[in-house]
Design goal:
Chains A, B, C, D: Keywords: Hydrolase. Chains A, B, C, D: This is Cyclase family protein. Chains A, B, C, D: Pfam families: Cyclase. Chains A, B, C, D: GO terms for molecular function: hydrolase activity. The structure is a homotetramer. By secondary structure, the first copy, chain A, is of the alpha/beta class. The first copy, chain A, has one domain: Glucose Oxidase, domain 1, CATH 3.50.30.50. Chain A has 9 helices and 16 strands. Chain A has a 9-stranded mixed β-sheet with strand order 1-16-14-8-10-12-13-4-15, sandwiched between helices. In chain A, strands 2-3 form a two-stranded antiparallel sheet. In chain A, strand 6 and strand 7 form a beta hairpin. In chain A, helix 1 packs parallel to helix 8. The first copy, chain A, is globular and about 70 Å long. The N and C termini of chain A lie far apart (about 45 Å). Chains A and B meet through helix 2, strand 1, strand 2, strand 3 and strand 5 of A and helix 2, strand 1, strand 2, strand 3 and strand 5 of B. Strand 5 of chain C pairs antiparallel with strand 3 of chain D.
């Protein structure tokens, strides 16, 4: 089996290999210049902050269907331990085991490969158990702060959430941008809201993952045309699942991460942000979504915050 | 053994129990109002970002001396796995085990108790293995974004780093604020630079921890007087170690976390920030330092970013 | 709510506190003398070995219903790593995170407490996050080797497996002993086969746990009367689940572990052993079921072997 | 760099590829027949049991020098949790993260490869992050029970322990066998005592690992000639470290595991066994050393027991 011609044609159009040099490891994050961040800070009006991460706990959203992507096992190592003798100040410490992509996370560019390659044409074999990702590990995405824009596709359509078989198209993104009254600019981080996370929040973890609305294979070209820096949404798989084209699995991942070099975020909780933006009638804000710098990580938990 | 009278006198003066109501779980984070954040965003001039977290890796700063505070064991769960058959898009996933306070971190208010109490007078016994911290867990500190100010004590004194027996005093903080040409305001997050992290960065992990400069038992009153929202620095223990007063261990922890209800950060890398502030001749900036929302966590890794 | 009078009456009859002294931490394992082991070795006829542990893997028997009892997350730390340079001998290493009671395991005596006490009348509060079990941790059960006897209750009744609502009674145990043609002796380790593990082996993890046949609240007296050293079976909960007496949860655990001081084993795969014993027409053998010596552990994975 | 001619010559002489068929995954464990085990059981005289595993705890023997081989992080998941309501029977559960080769362990045959091959000529590339070891994983070594013989090299020489630069030779093994008054037979599991573990038990973890006595590159031929089933000893590296021949690292591993297909055990505590054998004046016993069946594991913790 190989990837169909349709995929390769899109791939050619969105490919960014070499655009920022042969040594580049961060792709479209290069579009976030100091100037972009300065302008992003200027979007802050009220100082209201909205946190976008799911709680980290054993009872998380993973169901066991993705091998090894385990919910956080968070345990106490010591509780009120009087380290220096009875009656002294006591400390409590904890530890965790978790899949780096188990909850609200960024995929590193190296999360996906196809045809033996990762972003910028490097061999996929440069990911090893010992080094993890030698190139484009999540630690290379040193700071992710920019203007965030919420494209609230569900709200723009007057829906609570999109149906499970809805592929979010470029036209949907245009519609949501028009609804928001904004223009997506180079260096923006785009948050696409489907409303699907409500299914998980209501307790149906299996229903959350499948079937699920998500991005269409046609959207990478839209992101490329707008020079978007990164994209996140409120679904498990990011792209529509099951996929639009039979037997073409994870094409959006391959186009965004490998061809374009654009980070993706998943399982972001955009519900409160949707309300806040609607109340403020503004859909642009300063977004800080710093990766935990796991050396060679192919993903990372992230606790994003929108500052309106 | 019990805590000395001197401790209890300071405790009375900085105590914030009940100040934000009996139900309060976040202490001085209450001082970060929308207005404070709005003003903080207005401090951004250049858009330059400086990341403050140490890399997360097995070869981290922990030496094994603090039981259970283990360096990140970061392993690949799958590498270039063609989940949907040969020739399809391939994915890589990873997982981690780590102490939540192993690297750059926030202590939750519940990290420390004394005399059987945690912040706001609740029983220390509300921390259990099953619930972890029922009150004031790190997940309650929902968003930590404010004006950050760097009090570069080492640079203000013309030193690369403070000697190992230097207790940073209120006078040192005043001196550094004067050097920075700023006034610390309510809701600020104060970053105190000693330069001690250089020892760890040079490879001497044991020397980093002991002996180490750090905050004096006299500083909590200074933070209280200035209504600071949170404090972080570039040392392992936060306060001077070994302590100033014989057999009075971790008094600053007890005063800051338990009495005042003020979060502390440790192992923050302030080296690049020191350079950036010196170059910009400005020591105030927008700081985003979002906790990972571990439910009931007594600490969290954090990837702070200063936006100048 | 408190435990009913019926429970306390049985408790009195099976209680072994003080029987081996106030300092004792291993309970009925004291019954395994050198003489018992010598005789056990003499039961070996053919040298045939039957392993009784389930495979350890992410796709294990845990369903997430017991908080924190996580299936093994087994990851490679390095693969064919040429540690000493290209062309040298290469090594592979792996690591695991797992609940100690996740698969085939022994409960330590401290796995259960009731009315604030563990075995031998010690306070339950001696189990702490820092020390784990100070007394009667699984590391104290230094060597578990004895005569094993299979009481194949299902086979004795001519059934593949017992129905889900079948409480195994003392009469059932007598029947199985008669079927086996043996007398249970002091120091024996008794393996009780219900056949229930077949449900898990067929892929129905939820059905394996509930409803499940298991030991009746009346069996501890039988074990006590026979001076059995330890008991294991092929179910998730060991005792019948849901329980025989409304709102009396885990009474067999409380009687065996706390009152009698007798170790319990769960999730033992007795299917091949059942066949081997039937073929050999002998139901007694040498059993080695050594605990991994987790210091202060309240349980341990175990890889038991029957030598026929 | 490639392995020297000397290595390849020995390799040819001890190679067992194909000896038990192309499908074989367990190598010299094939030598442990039912007959061998039956005879082994007959060696039991007193019923005395000696456990050979080190305690599993955070303060274990690993020093951080072998990446990812982490000491057990053993944490409580719940303590005296009244799962079914106040006053009910309470349970305690724990979990662990550890390197499978961190303490007393077996190396699986797949722990080592050289020249791109593992045992029986299979490609080293069959070990992957997803499958771990597809062939010869430790789960394939289903039951390891046989006659154990202690070759107490240190005691035979009248030493407490061998010096750090002592390579145990075939002549040393013959000497120890003569001292023990026994002949090593096909299917035996040979335990070689150097006394080196005393260094670790005395608290010097670094000194334990380096320099360390261990097996000479000449011993694999001796094991091959005697048709030994498996070998374990009381050192960190198994073979003498640093090695006898400059730049020839881990040759014994490569010969034993890859060429011969013979399992190796390390960090076995043979101190009590040495005493027990000397007291009994017998150095042969029944040994049970069952691997935990980690699917595709390249090693496993083991809790061996000698039954005298």
């Amino acid at each position: 089996m190989s990837l169909p011609a349709e995929f390769h044609e899109i791939a050619k159009r969105v490919n960014n290999w070499g655009r920022w040099g042969q040594e580049d490891e961060i792709g479209t994050l290069n579009l976030i210049t100091d100037e972009v961040v300065k302008d992003a800070a200027a979007t802050v009006r009220s100082g209201r902050r909205v946190a976008l991460a799911l709680p980290l706990q054993q009872d998380g959203i993973q169901t066991g269907m993705i091998p090894g992507r385990v919910n956080p096992l968070h345990t106490m190592v010591q509780i009120n331990q009087e380290l220096f003798g009875p009656g002294t100040v006591a400390t409590s410490d904890d530890a965790v085991t978790m899949g780096l992509q188990a909850a609200t996370h960024w995929d590193a560019l190296t999360h996906v490969s196809h045809s033996g390659k990762i972003y910028n044409g490097r061999p996929a074999g440069t990911i090893t158990p010992h080094t993890r990702a030698r190139y484009s590990g999540i630690d290379k995405a040193e700071h992710i702060v920019s203007r965030g824009v919420l494209l609230d596709v569900a709200r723009a359509k007057g829906l609570d959430r999109l149906p499970g078989d809805h592929a979010v198209t470029p036209e949907d993104l245009d519609e949501a941008a028009a609804f928001a009254g904004l223009t997506v600019k180079p260096g923006d981080i785009v948050l696409v809201r489907t409303g699907q996370l409500q299914v998980a929040l209501a307790g149906d973890k299996h229903g959350y993952g499948y079937p699920s609305p998500g991005l269409s294979v046609r959207t990478p070209e839209w992101f490329h045309a707008h020079d978007v820096a990164a994209v996140a949404n409120d679904t498990l798989t990011f792209e529509i699942f099951p996929p639009e084209i039979e037997n073409l699995w994870l094409p959006v991942h391959a186009l965004d991460l490998v061809e374009m070099g654009m980070l993706q975020g998943q399982n972001w909780n955009l519900e409160n942000l949707s309300t806040a933006c609607a109340e403020a009638r503004r859909y642009a804000f300063l977004l800080s979504a710093m990766p935990e710098p796991f050396v060679g990580g192919t993903g990372t938990p992230v606790a994003p915050v929108a500052i309106l």
